Amino acid sequence: MMKRLLLMLLLTRAALAGSVVLLPLDNDELTPLIIKAVEAKGWQVKSGEEIEALLEQERVRYLDSIEAGVREKILAKSGADAILSVTVYLYKPAVGLTARLVDRDGEVVWANVAAVAPSDTERALGMGKRDVAEEAVKALMRDFRRSGSPTRPRATGRRTRPTFYLSPQLDQSRPICVLPFDNHSRATDAPRVLADILALRLAAAGFRVVDPVVLRDAALKARVSLHAVSSPDLALLAKSVGTPLFLRGTIYAYNESPSIDVEATLVDAAAGKVLWASQQSRKGSDYIGFLMLGAVSNSVSLSDRVAAEMIATARTKHANSNAAGNRSYPGQGER
After folding, report:
1. Does the first or last residue of the chain, that is N or C, have fewer Cβ atoms within 10 Å of its Cβ?
2. Would you state the pLDDT for residue 315?
3. Is 184 helix (H, G, I), strand (E, B) or coil?
4. What is the arithmetic mean of pLDDT over 47-65?
5. Is 114 in contact with 139 (CB distance < 8 Å)?
6. 129-149, pLDDT tens digit by residue?
7. How far is the C-alpha of 103 from the C-alpha of 151, rounded, in Å?
8. CA–CA distance from 112 to each of 97, 121, 151, 167, 304 (Å)?
9. Which carries the bigger pLDDT value, residue 48 or residue 53?
10. Ramachandran angles phi, psi of 261, nearest 5°
11. Residue 4: which H helix or E strand, with range?
12. Going from the N-terminus, what domains does the chain have, and what CATH number goes with each?
């Protein structure tokens, strides 16, 4: 009798479990770790040669963002409820990752970023180190939504007082396109890492972000290079993507020490106005606290801190002003 009840319970759980397609990763070591973490949340994971063949057939070049038609084909073929994509920025000695869970309607229902360096895994008195990849996946998937209980991404990172400008016309009603950043550093991956994390944190702060595949498709049709875009180009793109708001910026330094120096500007291409601008120059050692603990150990984690702090100047300052009924701001923010 007990065995029958146990079997019925297992079958019921399997029937209620949602399923998710895990898009291919470039790293074979991380794939089983992520599958294990997803299954631990009650999901069934679908991946393999059929999905890879479909992606190849549809000539999908970028897995960070899937075109709507391709997304529908993947979900129809697999019978899954959502698609999980994981991007690897660093892999050993440090491991840095971002992930997005996209539902059938194309909504990002969960997203996160995590990075772990070997020094982060040391136990007290330097005794014994845990596996860096396992710890990174554990951190990435810690708040992954359980099957059947949708959540939204959460913003993280402490609030600071960086240099910023904020227009009273900035609101959250219009979507934002995140453009590739100009890169003056020696780190070739820096624009991709910062753009991805800024988009993730903007969504976590309540802003709507245009899917990268939509922006890439619009640029291709308009024959506009996103790496050298002019004001007339932005006005042209605005008509295709359905919003005049574009976030662009410049990376002046991006080092594995780690340290980052970056500025970002949100422009309204239709009105020809700057709605928000923020600049941050940070080192991992800036976060050292009690007993010399808390230093950020790698560039991906620092990128996440910097992105959250930059966005906080737009999100919290604007919200506080609206609550107070004050619609006017100084032209230059605080240092």
Report:
1. N
2. 60
3. coil
4. 84
5. yes
6. 678 999 999 999 988 877 665
7. 12
8. 8, 20, 12, 28, 10
9. 53
10. -130, 115
11. helix 2-16
12. 17-154 (3.40.50), 156-335 (3.40.50.10610)
